[in-house]
Amino acid sequence: MFEANGSAVQFRIFVGLMALIGLITWLKVRGAAERSGDPNATDKEIFLAGGGLNWFFVAGAITLTNLSTDQLVGMNGNQMLLLAWWELAGFVGLLILAFVFVPIYYRNKCTTVTELLEQRYRGGSIRTVISAIFLIGNVFIYMPAVIYSGSLFMQSLFGTDMTVGAIATIFAIVGPAYAILGGLRGVAVLDTYSGVGILGLALVVVLLALAAVNFDLFTGVPAERISMIGALDSPIPFHTLFTGMIFIQIFYWSTNQNITQKALAAPTVEEAQKGVIAAAIVRVLIIPAIVVIPGVVAYKLFGDVGDRAYGMIVAEVLPSWTSGMFAAMIAAAVLTTYSAVLNATITLYTVDFHRKFVNDKASAIVLNRTVGIGASILAVALVPLYAGANSIINLLQELNGLSSMPILSAFIAGLLFRNVDARAAIAGLVYGVGIYALHNFILYRPDTLYAGETFYQHIGLDWLHYIDVMVVVLVTSVMVALAVNRMMFGNRAIFIFSREGRALRAAQA
């Protein structure tokens, strides 16, 4: 792929390692579903790895589904230490998944997170609506962003003349093979085995980058790039750590099908919890360093180079003979995240749409292939939309805000209250999407009506950040859902921790 601009040895190392990872994955997962001879077992194999992932593979799958070039390229592209807060806060989010949500999902025997909502609400429409939002987000946001950022990194690392679109197409051809041929088990095994190499090499990059500046990260770098206390105009103002950050983490780690599906594939609650806790430890001890330090070093060496920072620093500090090795590990990171999101997409469509509305006896194997190929073609077509982004990671966070808090509001209303109509939850969801869109795309943008200021600056709320707004969206979306439930559908919601709620739960148990 990059032989024209790199040595033949580097190219052979790249191809050889990619082939080795593929072979190891195939040897581990081959014939798992077919050996059972049970069509239902085939479903479970594709969607939940047969319920047989031990804690090690759960941890690996969760870690590598999250860690890809959108983190390595995007976070380092901000070239400031402040972005480490996303990963540090993720530790708390994973603990909430382990001790709050995993027991709930297992107790309710869920394959998708939306199944839980259907059980909690009066009416199943909420499941369909939220599944549709997840599917749109995966195909239109996550999948194209992952292969775009991976392709951009490869282009920067090798200095190749190959276009980002062409490289993205290769990723989109290889990635589905793991999700389509291996199901979730193939994805998890690929995640875990390649993850060891990815994390190891990424730590080597951190050490070599620091050595390149004599382990002096602070001299000659603007204070705002090395501070962990974000200013009001920074990507993460400090006060937002105490407003919306925790709710973003709860949504991402605990109610997001792309992540939670891995935790649902363990044989027991306890095994799932061990895996999630292991992922949380990796999250706090390793991930923050590898997603911010190289970017700051790149600023010190090259200046403000944005999302090209990580590729440039890797090319600068790694010996030339390791380029092929590192490229293989980065390619594996792209493929693991891409295939994991694709597998979640296939699961959501099959379980929540095709089986429900089209054909409840449709073959999971056929749908696995058809949906996988179709979603990949669409993702490649959308890659050019991301090429103009100033920061891929900031763009992703802002786009995710459109759905994250509205979806979380449906989970909160469903888990904390009883006797709520699904249509009321949908009303809260629609309200949340609308109010966040109004904020982010109108009120938060400079306008000539206010002499180039935003609406918030004009009225003295210049400190209000989109992370703050997420709290407002979440709380008011729940309030709208409960109000609609009462006024339009005549239902009185029962808080589960009230005396009446405790009695109801006792009766249901």
**Share in helix:** over 70%
CATH superfamily of the largest domain: Sodium/glucose cotransporter
What's the helix-strand series? HHHHHHHHHHHHHHHHHHEHHHEH
| Secondary-structure arrangement, i.e. CATH architecture of the largest domain | Up-down Bundle
Radius of gyration (CA) equals 23 Å
Cα(first) to Cα(last) distance is 59 Å
> Describe the biggest sheet?
2 strands, antiparallel
Task: List low-confidence stretches.
Answer: 1-6, 33-39
- The overall strand count is 2
Spatial arrangement of strands, main beta sheet: 1-2
Number of helices: 22
Q: What is the top-level CATH class of the largest domain?
A: Mainly Alpha
Shape: globular
The CATH topology of the largest domain corresponds to Sodium/glucose cotransporter
Strand content: under 5%
Category from helices, strands and their pairing: mainly alpha
**Number of domain modules:** 2
Query: What value does the average pLDDT take?
Result: 82
What would you note in describing this structure?
It is a single chain. With 509 residues, the protein is mostly helical. It has 2 domains: 44-387, Sodium/glucose cotransporter (Up-down Bundle), CATH 1.20.1730; 389-509, no CATH class. Helices cover 74% and strands 1% of the residues. It has 22 helices and 2 strands. A two-stranded antiparallel sheet has the order 1-2. The longest helix is centred in the middle third of the chain and has 49 residues, at 164-212. The radius of gyration is 23 Å and the shape is globular. Mean pLDDT is 82; it is low at 1-6 and 33-39.
